[in-house]
Each structure stands twice: as structure tokens, then as C-alpha cells.
Protein 1
Amino acid sequence: MAVKEISNNLFFANVESIINSGNSVELKVKGTSMYPALRNGKHKVVLVPYRKEFLRIGIIALFIHNQKHILHRLVSIDNNILTFQGDNLPYVKEYIEEKDIIAIVEFIITPDGKVTDCKKQWFFIKNKLWRPIYKNHILFMRKIKSLFYKAFVISN
């Protein structure tokens, strides 16, 4: 099978066109910012057009930030400002307005074909319980690596 690469701008212009026509889009995830919830090249997501009733802490959405398309989780709402963050990026946040949201993730499909419905209450409960644990795990591991580096690499 021949593989053809296209620019992100062209790719996401097509995705937006499909979403704007009211249809869903299935994409294979690229990148590690949402690890471990979404694994690079392994998981697929089904995007559906955004509607206001979907707006809720914990949704994963495709949005535009600084002229880039990003797929991250909504972590807070403050008046008209929405804060998104990748699960694997404890220090990086994107601040956008609701108008910048293109679509939300309706389903996550694992490599073995298991489908997670991202609109179900259990999805939000798991996120609320798991996210602080993983965030602290990331920070702890970075601290350990830093101490290891200082103790063994710099001292040599």
C-alpha cells in the first residue's frame, strides 16, 4: 500500500470540513501528549462535531490554539476561558475560548478493538480519580531522574 504524506494544515482542513458537515471522523492518534490515555500510533479516536451540551471537565477535544490543531483534555472552565492540558504534560496548558473547539472525542478505540464511550459517566469518574495520580507520578519520576542525573552524571 502506498503512503502519501500531507501537511497538517491540509489534513486538518479536511477534518474540519467533514466535522462542519455534521459527520464524525476516525483518526489514529499521533504524539505522546495524551499518554497513557491515548498512545502514539496505537489508539484511534472518533471525533464528532462540538455542541455546547458536551462542555464538561474531562472531555477530550480537538481545538485550535496558536494556529495549531491540538487534541487535549479540558481541565477547567473559568468564565469564558477554557483550560486544556495533555495528560502527559503537567506543566503545559492551553487557554482558549469555546469558539476554538472543533470537535470532541466520542469514542477511543484501543489496538485490540475495545471501544470506550467518552460520553459515559464512568469515563469522567475514571478521569477524575486517575488524573491526579498520574500527574504526581510524572512529577515524581522527573524528580528522581533529575536526582539520578545530578548524582551520577554530573559527578563523573
Protein 2
Amino acid sequence: MNRQKNNQEVIVSGIHLELTPSLKTFVQEKAERLFRHEESISRIRVELECDPKQAVAQRFTAKGHLQIQGPDCNVSVSSDECHKAIAMLIDKLDRMLERRARMMKSKRSHQRAADLEAALPEGY
């Protein structure tokens, strides 16, 4: 829907839910936080779903899909209010990106077995 700088985009779709302009802008404002943390995100797809047959506490479901370098991130959150579900979804995606960044840093700092064997002198 909204094409941002550096070819990053946010796609918002509704399933059994009328998407209002306020919902779209709310998702885009919240998603800006993810783009600030991680520059390699190429696309964020958010699906908002309302299921009246579900219990009241799980009526609204927000699903997020991050297309990023490496494996994509997929998250789903349910709540009783649509705006609360969106906020929880973005928080969860943010934590996932932070964990992913920590894992990438720790993998860079650890030596691999092949590196250790190359560092040993020939007599060992």
C-alpha cells in the first residue's frame, strides 16, 4: 500500500474486516519502528482478521510476515481489540528482530571447527 524509501513497503489487508484509513495509518506508524531497527526488511505484510465465532478474547487476529535477507519471519497474535492486536504483533516482530540480530552477532564472534584446526601448528 505505502511504498517507503529504500523500496520498503507495508501491505495491509483485512479478512472479514473493513479496513479503515485509521487502521492502515496505525499499522504503518507502528511498522516504522521495525524499519528503523532493521534496514534489510524489504516488505512487511500484515493481515487483520475478525472472526465473530471465536471467543471475545481472541476475536481479532493479526498476522505479520517479514520478508528479510535470510529466513522470513512469521508471527500471529490474537486479542479482543484490533488496535491491541496490531501493537502486540509489532512488539513481537521487534523482539524477533532483536533476537535475530543477537544470534547473528554471536555467530560472527565464535570460531568454527575448521578455523580452529587451521590455527593449530602442524605438530599437534
Protein 3
Amino acid sequence: MKRNVLIYGFVTGLIFSAHMVVKVGKLYSNPGYQAKVVIGYTAMVVMFSLVYFGIRNYRDKHLQGTISFGRAFKMGCLIALVGSSLYVLVWVGYYYLFVPDYLDVYTEHVLKNSSPSRLAARTQEMALFRERYKHPLFVVLITYYEVLPVGLVVAFISSLILKTRPANNQKQSV
């Protein structure tokens, strides 16, 4: 199980990290870039689909086609955690080494796309966010918060889909 968790988690993290670098690059090169939240979360679900394939691979190749919900969910959570952790590590390094002015660019982007009625509130929110983002622990926690919950939901759904019982435990018709 450990090998599958590491392989599928690492690949998930690499894909997430590459996606993040591309998104940040688009924001820098095109200040008018409009990232759609629905598209972003859909992309996360698609990227986290590797959780499903990791569980299925382990079930089929190592457990003779049977896996309990608990074991599948544990494995899915671990894959999501490894992938999310790699994403967090890459973001922290990328942010501090390559885009330390990211919050300036992001704040400008958010305020430019705010409605006039929400501009004052959004300005205040972004000032508070900028202050909190000065602390590395906050950066790590908010970055996990960005991706890990989606991975846990995908792990839960994948576990429900993939759980199977051994043939001798299934009810037999008389």
C-alpha cells in the first residue's frame, strides 16, 4: 500500500504543482486573466482522479479484487495527503523564491474584478489576508486548505465506488 500511496500521491502532486505554476504564470503575463472557480475545482477533481486509480490498482493487483471501504478510504486520504503536501512544498518554494510579489499581483487582480459595491470590503479583506500571509505557517495552512478538502471528498467517493467484499462473504441466493 505504501508504494501505491507514494507513487500516485507524488504524480498527483506533480500534476497539481505544474497546474499551479501555469495558473500563476497566466496571472502574471495577463493581468486581465479571469480564473473561473468552477473550472478550477473541476480541474482539481480531475487531477485527484488519480486517487481512484491508485485505490483500484491496489485492490486489483494486491488484494485479489476486494477492498473494504475503510481501507480504500485510508489509502485515498493518504494519496490526497501526499499529493497535497507536494503541492504545498512546491508553492511555498515557488512563492518565496520566484514570486514574492504574488500577493501584490493577486490583490490587484481581485480588486480589479470586484464590483464597485464590494470594493471597500474586498480591499479590507485583501489587506487582512496580506497581513496573515506574512506568516509561513498561515501560507502552509491556507495552501493545504485550498486542495486537501477536494482530495478527501474524491477519496470518499472513490472508496464508495471501489469497495468490494470477498466472494465468500456475499449473500447467496437459495
Protein 4
Amino acid sequence: MTDRPADPLADLHAREGVPSAMAAARDGIDVLLRDRGLRRSTPADTAESLLRGAHASGVLEGSGSSLDAVREGEGDAVAADAVRLSTELLSLTPLVSRAPLQAFARLHALAAQGSVDAEQLGRPRDAASAARLRDLAAVLAAPTEAPALVVAAVAHAEVATAAPFASHNGLVARALERLLLVARGVDEKSLVVPEAAHLALRPAYESNLRGYAEGGIAGVHAWLLYAAEAYAAAAEASPLAR
């Protein structure tokens, strides 16, 4: 479209209340990571964050497994899919920056392995879904003045609402959000738990995703304000916040 802003994410970030909300959320994350960094985080902290995130994302996708069951490797099929995705997630950090479309495909292939036919793994459902993913990849690849939290929030909502794959779209969307927080320098060791925040805020999470899909620019604006709240809660859900 000829009237699309040159920097669409920066345009969204400029909406009323979004800059201050996102700055406050980032400050909360930075305080957690800086303060706890005095004693240094460990790979075990990252693993615990990823596990908590996998459990929460699985519940949002329909899993009935408890965190303890997931921790013991006894979760249901959806939980197992979420754990498999989380286990490989950080290895995709370079790919999501260099080749976002390939990263989207790999995320779905990991999440849906064994659940859909092999020819559907990593492939969009139809031409419209493929176009939506190409548009998102182009936005992620373009320079932007928007902060990383806005980038991650928009990418999450785009995948969650477009549902471009045959299955597991929620798992992919939440994994992409976490991956972008890592790749864009917000949380390089992946210690905050956005998935747990979305689960704790589930009614608002689900209603704001519907608003993003159906409410035009007002819905997108509301989603970004919600996302800032969720990122603050994600820091509180970190294993470092104990």
C-alpha cells in the first residue's frame, strides 16, 4: 500500500501511552537482569525459564499438564511439543535476524513434528498465509526506530492472529516473541518468562489478541498496551525473581 508508513513499527510505538508503558516494562526487565547479574545467572536459570515458558505456552495451547509433570517429562502431547520447541529455540537466534522466514518455518517444524504430515511442517496453509508471513519477515528485516519490545509484541500478535500454519500457531507465536527478545538484546540469556505472564493474564491476553485481529488500529494500540503489562509480569515470572 502506498500510504504505509516507512517505519510502521515506529508509527505504532508512537501511539498514546505506548512509549511510556514500553519504557517502564523495559526498565523492569533491565533492573531484574542487572541486579541479579551481580551474582551471575547460570545455564540452569535459562533452562528453568525455558521450561516455565514451555509449560505456560502449552497450557495456552490446550495442555492440561502441570508444571511438575512437565518438569518430570510426563506432560501430555501438547506440553511435549512446547518443550521440544523450547529446547531448540535459542539455536535459532542468528536465523531470526538473518532470515526470518526460515526461522518461522523452523519454529513450526519443531512444534508440529509428529502432529501433522511432513509436507505441512514449516509451510503456510495457503497463499494468503504465505503473503502474511512474507510481510512480517519484511517488517522484521527492515530498520526501525521502534524498541525491541514493540517488535516482539507485533510479531507475536501477527502469527497468533493470522494462524498461518496448519497447527501449533500459538506455540510458534509465543516462541517467536521470546526469540526476538533474545535476538534484539532485551534478554540475551532468555531469563524472563513472557509465556507465564500471558497465562497469568489469560483473559486480557486472549481478548487483546481478538482486538488485534478485529479492532483495527485501536485493537493494535490496545494490544501494545497489554503487551507492556505482560512484559513487566514476565520479569516477575523469571527464575531470578525468587
